[in-house]
Amino acid sequence: MDNKLYISQLRDYAQKEYIPIIRADSERFMDVLMNIHKPLRILEIGTAIGYSSICMAMALQQRVDDFHIDTIEIDPEMVIAARKNIENCGFSHNIRVICGDCLEVLPALTARYDFVFMDAAKGQYSRIYEDCLRLLRTDGILLCDNCTYHGKLDVNPAQAPHKHRTIIANMQEFHRIILNDDRLSAVLLEVGDGMILASKKR
Ligand SMILES: C[S@@+](CC[C@H](N)C(=O)[O-])C[C@H]1O[C@@H](n2cnc3c(N)ncnc32)[C@H](O)[C@@H]1O
Q1: What is the average pLDDT value for the chain, to the nearest integer?
Q2: How far is CA 163 from CA 70, 158, 166, 168, 198, in A?
Q3: Strands, E assignment, 58-201
Q4: 118 in contact with ligand 1, CB cutoff 6 A
Q5: Rounded to an integer, what is the distance from CA 77 to the centroid of its chain?
Q6: pLDDT at residue 175 above 80?
Q7: Ligand 1 center to 20 CA (angstroms)
Q8: Which of 14, 19, 91, 98 could form a disulfide bond with 57, CB atoms 3.0-4.6 angstroms apart?
Q9: Rounded Cα gap, residues 58 and 159, in angstroms
Q10: Are 122 and 148 in contact (CB under 8 A)?
Q11: Are 111 and 29 in contact (CB under 8 A)?
């Protein structure tokens, strides 16, 4: 089956099974970034069923000779599904799915990446931020998804429903950290559920 048809069916499947994958406009934005930046080495945090990894691979396949994606996923069942989808699309040699908690996996990584896509648990972004920055090469791009938390961020966490409080406070802290970090140029974009795009300065 043609990969375009495969991922279109994968998007339908994710929707039906309530598996959170990148939104359609965020996918288009990422495609633009792949075209402009042409990263050869990508790190993704949060694989789910491999949808966004496959999208990046499809974009790069047309633009560069060789590329590699490392993607980290904590849920073993997702890892199995992702590996199967990646294999079905013919990208097993380009994409490595690492099964584990990013809080443990990231500190052990040493290679540098041209592009880091943060798309795992929103409440943990501040905790994995320093490792992501360390692993990103100078001039590399850091893209963070779900940064506006469905529009719920413009509130005082104390006044938010209890179940959202911690995540809102954590995401607000992440905004303060990344948008004020002199080591990066960073901007919050109204794409998808809010994406922060940053590049690492010299
Ligand atoms: C939004 S989904 C990723 C979607 C995927 N990037 C896509 O667009 O196709 C987030 C994923 O992060 C995983 N995750 C959550 N906490 C994690 C952690 N601490 N380490 C690694 N993966 C984690 C979840 O199991 C979930 O599959």
Answers
A1: 95
A2: 32, 11, 7, 10, 29
A3: 68-73, 95-99, 113-118, 136-144, 184-189, 195-200
A4: no
A5: 19
A6: yes
A7: 8
A8: 91
A9: 43
A10: no
A11: no
pLDDT of residue 1: 82
**Each residue's pLDDT tens digit, 25-62:** 999 999 999 999 999 999 999 999 999 999 999 999 98
Cα 122 from Cα 109, distance rounded (Å): 21
pLDDT on residue 150: 78
CA 67 to chain CA centroid, Å, is 17
- Strand-pairing partners, residue 96, are 70
Q: Give yes or no for residue 82 having a pLDDT over 90.
A: yes
Q: How far is CA 202 from the centre of its chain?
A: 23
How distant, in Å, are the alpha carbons of 22, 60, 182, 189 from that of 25? 8, 18, 29, 12
Burial class (CB in 10 A: 0-12, 13-18, 19+), 32: exposed
- Dist. CA 16 → ligand 1 center (Å): 18
Note the pLDDT of residue 161.
79
Ligand 1 atom nearest residue 27's Cα: 8
Distance 44 CA to ligand 1 centre (A): 9
Whether the predicted model's global pTM rises above the 0.85 cut: yes
